[in-house]
Amino acid sequence: MNWKTVCDGLSAVERFCAAVEVSGVEYDSRRMGRGDVFVAMRGEATDGNRYIEAAIAKGAMAVVTDSREAYEKLRREHAGVGAALVERGRRALAEVSAAVMGHPERGLALSGVTGTNGKTTTAFLLEAMLRSVGRTCVLIGTIETHVGDEVRVSPHTTPESRDVLEIFADGVKAGATEAVMEMSSHALEQERVWGLPVDVAMFTNLTQDHLDYHGTMEKYFAAKARLFERVGSPAPRVAVINGDDSYGRRLIAANRQSQMMGYGLEPLSGDYRAEDIKLQAGETRFIFKTPNGDALMRSSLTGRVNVYNLLAASCAALARGMTLEEVVAGAASGAQVPGRFEVVPSSNDMTVVVDYAHTDDALRNLISLARELVKERSGRVITLFGCGGDRDKTKRPRMGRAAGKGSDLVVLTSDNPRSEDPMEIINEALAGVRETATRCIVEQDRAAAIEIAIRAAKAGDIVLIAGKGHEKVQILREGTVPFDDVAVAAGVLREIA
Question: Is Ligase a UniProt keyword of this protein (predicted)?
Fold first, then answer.
């Protein structure tokens, strides 16, 4: 593609349209190839403008920069290289990537989901529903990325725009017509999703998380709300919003541009509701009330929180043109989402569950569900959890209180301490547990803690291993090491058996 053609669609302050051909886009100079455009932008950890010379040495034919100094240096010293000066590097990355890749985003109907809890499950459910009626999909989320039938590793919940568009391009080549994406608050605020035309936007809920980045709940909410406004493209055609959530009600009240589909369990939550809910381990049933009729919804997912996830995905599927009957059938066929109330197979008369719950609200919901499941058998709830390092410290005692109030025994351990001292993190969470009367065992080593929790269980008890869910590594100060909660728990269960 001619660099001038790319320039024509770029929101630039200044540009030099050298007569060069470009064939790719990169923002990491280490991945540069001959003929690529290098987008140099200031980020949170580093400044990409420091690597312009390295990118040119590797064959960059054009450079987009958000630095006036870097742009002027380019014009002086590299007259044969195309150049553009932009105000916002991430917006430019999205615009250049879309142009060079032939605008793959225009070939997919995009459904985006945001919220504190439930994004992953809702995205998986919606993809399963769409696939059940023969549609080929792209899925981008926390656990993994799907391109049709191909499964890829997801390094981030929401990648940079260049990487998203590359996945979309692969999807279009594979015959995909639908895309489902988790959109994190970081990605929305940083404009990693700039220019993506969202057809259906979903909001699950908002509880305290990521305040280490956003600072306040209002700023956190404002980042989430951007999905329903304009992030370089028109507002979504349809907004699917949890009307039982106080922040969701604010979004509903502020909406002026999208067709609204409010959902929930309460009478005033919206036109799409769940009634006559029946919950048991391995099955959830309810009557799905809609303006166009009612239907019995069944799913192998467990718990009240998944009623909300099913409602969100069902509304989005209806918005994407599926019939009510197709939605119900698709929900029934949905598979287990890795690390989301994942029951570890066991021959013992106890239940061991691995779940990603890593906020106090998610932990409360998880423990509440476990309490319902053991009630008939007079069993106990044993909760193992830890808190992540280099993240919002204020939620640590809150998580401790949530675990202590709902559990019969708490095992407090390490999660992903990152650069922090694991015992300092544990002690901050322990302060919250101590506000309750619940017994707490502290064991820093997560594998040893899992064994303690499982061996403490008796017939009829449920052991909750919370915090890491689907993750296959543990991030320590010394580096990243392999670690899988499910595999460790399964090993302990085999030894006991």
Answer: yes
Q: How confident is the model at residue 349 (pLDDT cuts 50, 70, 90)?
A: confident
DSSP 319-368: HTT--HHHHHHHHHHPPPPTTSSEEPP-SSSSEEEEE---SHHHHHHHHH
**3-state SS assignment for residue 253:** helix
Domains in the chain (CATH in brackets) are: 3-100 (3.40.1390.10), 104-333 (3.40.1190.10), 342-496 (3.90.190.20)
| pLDDT at residue 378 is higher than 90 | no
pLDDT tier at 210, thresholds 50, 70, 90: low
Based on its alpha-carbon atoms, the radius of gyration of the chain, rounded to whole angstroms, reads 24
CB 177, CB 201: distance < 8 Å: no
Q: Which amino acid is at 137?
A: C
Is the Cβ–Cβ distance between 27 and 160 less than 8 Å? yes
Tens-digit pLDDT profile for residues 421-472: 999 999 999 999 999 999 999 999 999 999 999 999 999 999 999 999 999 9
**Distance in angstroms (rounded) separating the CA atoms of residues 292 and 297:** 15
Rounded CA-CA distance 465/175 in Å is: 39
The distance from CA 385 to its chain's CA centroid, rounded to whole angstroms, is 20
CB 83 within 8 A of CB 59: no
In contact, 402 and 363? CB cutoff 8 Å: yes
Least confident among 106-110, 213-217, 334-338: 334-338
Q: Is the Cβ–Cβ distance between 52 and 38 less than 8 Å?
A: yes
CB 71 within 8 A of CB 39: no
Q: Phi and psi for 294 in degrees, rounded to 5?
A: -115, 160
Please give the structure tokens belonging to residue 362.
Answer: 């998610």
